[in-house]
């Protein structure tokens, strides 16, 4: 989930959303310019055919950006691809040193799941068997409530956490993890082969970083709802350069680009830049010292999102550094229907303001920081020139924006209710 409370994003986007002129279905592909270009097959088994392709362009695994190419047939030739890559990227090449030797620590991958998407979970874990990394474990936390039959997930160690909520499940994963680093992801993603290596190398390159977040791109753009999520402005701020974030003052964060060394100050509450819970790695000692996730936040609770953003803000508030590594790539399966997307955005709205309520409850000084950015954020909700609004096409359904805003209004009460449910040991109906 991504929200920005400081009046818009910070100009760090490159191809963050699909161009307004293209329509679903779109072929999604990842192309690496360090490898020989091949024709891109855009055949679709069912009607209608693909109208174009959304392509993440990488160089030796490092993302340069994304492009959208329309197609009138079932093939985009290597020659067409070469022309488009030259037009968009010219001679741009990755500046990341991939030849350096690093000590690679043991990593624990934690996937919290209520097993409602069992096929996707199995696909996610199966893909992790192909990871280019020597020492890791996969922990699936079974978060079903009540008496349930054990489930076997090949390639993963399954542990139970019957207390409802993704935060409780992740906290169980933190408790049993054996790695020096814990990487959190979700059951509806597919990870790149070099995902863990990119994370570990970034920790080695930036040893004072407590957390590393990564890039999320779509797995498919088959339906209007999946395209609308890309255009909603509620997905992650998709940056293609390496960044680091550290608190400066009580409520400010300095964002530094590792490519050119430039620095920019921003609000601590501009959370869309920092990362998201489906691609977030934290040093085990740090996340345990922090106390893990807030059990009253996240899917499976009355405050059904925001737990990941809460942890990132807590890390920055405590003086820790967060590193953003775009070559740590995952692909996410967006919601397929508009009603599903509307419920998701509503949950995001609830979760965002619930998270803000949570950090105020833990530290009332955040009231001062939020008071300084709230007027600008309220103005941005009515300003159609903000980055979030600009990526929305003219026909973007008003019901989606309304659902998210209604959720924001409900968030504070939802968090207080969730705390009561959690403390009373009650079960929240799903």
Question: What do you see in this structure?
Answer:
A hairpin with a 5-residue loop joins strand 13 (252-257) and strand 14 (263-267). The strands form three sheets. Strands 6, 7, 8, 9, 10, 11, 12, 13, 14, 15 and 16 form an eleven-stranded mixed beta sheet that branches. Helix 5 (224-231) runs parallel beside helix 8 (338-362). The chain has helices spanning 78-89, 118-128, 166-176, 195-205, 224-231, 284-290, 307-317, 338-362, 366-381, 387-390, 398-423; strands at 26-32, 40-41, 52-59, 62-70, 75-76, 107-113, 136-142, 157-160, 181-185, 189-191, 209-218, 243-248, 252-257, 263-267, 280-283, 321-332. It has a domain at 191-423. The protein has eleven helices and 16 strands. Residues 1-17 have low confidence and may be disordered. With 430 residues, the protein is α/β, with parallel strands linked by helices. It is globular and about 60 Å long.
Radius of gyration: 21 Å
Instruction: Spell out the helices and strands N to C.
Output: EEEEEHEHEEHEEHEHEEEEHHEHHHH
Q: Name the poorly predicted regions.
A: 1-17
- The number of helical segments is 11
The total count of strands amounts to 16
The proportion of residues forming helix, as a percent range, comes to: 25-40%
Residue fraction in strands: 15-25%
Instruction: Report, as a whole number of angstroms, the end-to-end distance.
Output: 20 Å
Sum up the overall morphology in one term.
globular
Mean pLDDT: 89
Protein structure class: alpha/beta
Main sheet summary: 11 strands, mixed
């Amino acid at each position: 989930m991504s929200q920005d409370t400081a009046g818009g994003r910070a100009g760090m986007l490159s191809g963050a959303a699909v161009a307004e002129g293209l329509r679903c279905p779109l072929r999604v592909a990842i192309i690496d310019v360090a490898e020989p270009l091949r024709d891109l097959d855009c055949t679709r088994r069912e009607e209608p055919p693909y109208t174009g392709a959304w392509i993440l362009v990488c160089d030796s695994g490092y993302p340069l950006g994304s492009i959208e190419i329309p197609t009138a047939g079932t093939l985009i030739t290597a020659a067409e691809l070469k022309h488009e890559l030259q037009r968009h990227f010219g001679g741009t090449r990755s500046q990341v040193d991939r030849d350096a030797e690093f000590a690679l620590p043991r990593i624990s991958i934690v996937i919290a799941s209520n097993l409602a998407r069992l096929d996707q979970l199995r696909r996610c874990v199966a893909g992790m068997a192909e990871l280019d990394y020597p020492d890791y474990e996969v922990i699936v936390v079974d978060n079903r409530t009540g008496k349930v039959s054990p489930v076997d997930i090949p390639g993963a160690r399954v542990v139970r956490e019957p207390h409802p909520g993704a935060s409780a499940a992740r906290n169980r994963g933190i408790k049993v993890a054996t790695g020096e680093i814990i990487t959190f992801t979700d059951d509806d993603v597919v990870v790149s082969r070099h995902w863990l290596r990119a994370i570990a190398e970034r920790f080695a390159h930036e040893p004072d970083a407590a957390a590393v977040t990564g890039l999320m791109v779509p797995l498919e753009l088959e339906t209007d709802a999946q395209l609308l999520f890309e255009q909603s402005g509620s997905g992650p701020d998709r940056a293609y350069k390496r960044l680091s974030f550290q608190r400066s003052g009580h409520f400010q964060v300095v964002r530094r680009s590792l490519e050119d060394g430039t620095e920019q100050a921003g609000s601590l509450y501009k959370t869309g830049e920092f990362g998201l819970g489906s691609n977030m790695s934290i040093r085990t000692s740090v996340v345990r010292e922090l106390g893990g996730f807030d059990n009253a936040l996240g899917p499976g609770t009355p405050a059904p999102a925001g737990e990941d953003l809460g942890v990132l803000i807590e890390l920055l508030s405590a003086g820790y550094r967060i590193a953003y590594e775009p070559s740590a790539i995952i692909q996410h399966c967006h919601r397929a229907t508009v009603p599903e997307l509307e419920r998701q955005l509503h949950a995001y709205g609830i979760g965002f303001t619930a998270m803000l309520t949570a950090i105020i409850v833990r530290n009332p000084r955040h009231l001062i920081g939020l008071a300084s950015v709230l007027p600008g954020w309220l103005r941005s909700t009515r300003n159609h020139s903000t980055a979030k609004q600009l990526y929305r096409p003219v026909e973007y359904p008003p019901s989606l924006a309304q659902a998210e805003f209604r959720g924001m209004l409900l968030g504070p009460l939802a968090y207080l209710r969730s705390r009561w449910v959690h403390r009373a040991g009650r079960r929240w109906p799903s």
